[in-house]
Amino acid sequence: MTAPVVTRFAPSPTGFLHIGGARTALFNWLYARGRGGKFLLRIEDTDRERSTPAATEAILKGLTWLGLDWDGDVVSQFARKDRHAEVAQEMLARGTAYRCYSSAQEIADWKAAQEAAGVSYAVFQSPWRDADPATWPEAPYAIRMKAPRTGETLVEDRVQGRVTIRNETLDDMIVLRSDGTPTYMLAVVVDDHDMGVTHVIRGDDHLVNAARQQMIYDAMAWQVPVWAHIPLIHGPDGKKLSKRHGATGLEEYQVLGYPAAGMRNYLTRLGWAHGDMEIFTSEQAMEVFDLKGIGKAPARLDFKKLENTCGHHIAMSDDAALLQEIHAYLAAAGLPALTDAQSALLEKAMYCVKDRAKTLPELLEKAHFALISRPVVPDEKSAAALDTVSRGILDSLTPHLQTASWTKDALEPILNGVAGENGIGFGKLAAPLRAALAGRAATPSVFDMMLVIGRDETIARLSEAAA
Question: Motif 'HIGH' region: where (predicted)?
Answer without folding.
Answer: 11-21
